Amino acid sequence: MISINVNNAIHQVAEDTSLAAVVTKLSPVQNGIAVAINNTVITKAKWNNTKVSNNDNILIIQATQGG
């Protein structure tokens, strides 16, 4: 198991876990979100092939409407 920090909360995940698996587990909404690992935005097309690493800082942001 490795430790990752997602939106300032520590989570334990298995080694070789994809970013897509993390987002699926921790975000109730899959559309209209942006995800960054260690301050680098990862496009949705790359989530399945991007593996998280020990001590990664992951930020999941939900887009909102407003004016």
TrEMBL record:
Organism domain of life: Bacteria
InterPro entries, sorted: Beta-grasp_dom_sf, Mopterin_synth/thiamin_S_b, Thi_S, ThiS/MoaD-like
Pfam families in the record: ThiS
Listed CDD domains: Ubl_ThiS
Cross-referenced SUPFAM superfamilies: MoaD/ThiS
Protein name: Sulfur carrier protein ThiS
Organism of origin: Formosa sediminum
